[in-house]
Amino acid sequence: MGDSTVKRVNTAGLSMTIPAILLLGHSNSGKSPVGEALARTFSTSTHRLKHLDFGEHLRRTMAGSFDAGLLGDEMAYLREVMNGRLLDDDHFSIARKVILRFLSVHDLNHGGTVVLNGMPRHAGQARDVRDMGVDVRLVIVLECSPEIAWQRKCASERGQGHEDRGTRDDRGRDVFERRVASYGQETAPLISWYSDAGVAVVRAAIDVDTTPESVVELARAWVARVQLVGGAPRTL
């Protein structure tokens, strides 16, 4: 079903709780291919599992191929985000609309699981995502050193490895270093934030040649538990 045929999403929130799996790891640790592998492996005719690559959907929104229903000022701010500005808490409405539109497009509000990749990035956004009705029940941490991540990035730019980054304007070492610093300062603390809340955390050691399929196998039993629990109606 194409985006244009789906009814406009209710941007206030969800009618039921949506189970979610959150992928965490440095840029170039392999989150996108792991998310796609999870969707291929676990999505069935009775329980959809879809991968929301948040950064990719921001790029698609800017290109006009994904309609998140952003207003003019939100699109203007998104242009700044695409040029390196962080999506701050005051503009979480952009993330909310992208997430809700994605859930609507894939009909996940009527049963299914979403794999979150790139959102939330810090505790404030994690609370906002939770308050929307997206319930993170499993965190998969791709444990990858910055040097290994850089080697994986270079391999992908040579057409090797497991990730196609051809549409991303992030080739410079300075951009990479900024993202490494941001992950360490803001995103990595989410691991303990979720663990302290009782959410299961699975850690996968990532090397240059680690495949998405090997991470999927490591997390298989935990993903099955998330799917068995399923969603529940929300009290709004």
Order of helices and strands: EHEHHHEHEHHHEHE
Please count the beta strands (DSSP E, at least 2 residues each): 6
CATH-defined fold name of the domain at 18-52 and 113-229: Rossmann fold
Largest sheet: 6 strands, mixed
N-to-C CA distance: 28 Å
What gyration radius follows from the Cα positions, in whole Å? 17 Å
CATH-assigned homologous superfamily of the domain at 18-52 and 113-229: P-loop containing nucleotide triphosphate hydrolases
Low-pLDDT runs: 1-12, 232-236
User: Number of helical segments?
Assistant: 9
CATH architecture of the domain at 18-52 and 113-229: 3-Layer(aba) Sandwich
Q: Name the structural class.
A: alpha/beta
Share of helical residues: 40-55%
Estimated share of beta-strand residues: 15-25%
The CATH first-level class of the domain at 18-52 and 113-229 comes to Alpha Beta
Overall description:
Helices cover 46% and strands 17% of the residues. It contains 9 helices and 6 strands; from the N terminus they run E-H-E-H-H-H-E-H-E-H-H-H-E-H-E. Strands 1, 2, 3, 4, 5 and 6 form a 6-stranded mixed sheet that branches. The radius of gyration is 17 Å and the shape is globular.
Short description:
This protein is of the alpha/beta class and 236 residues long. 46% of the residues lie in helices and 17% in strands.
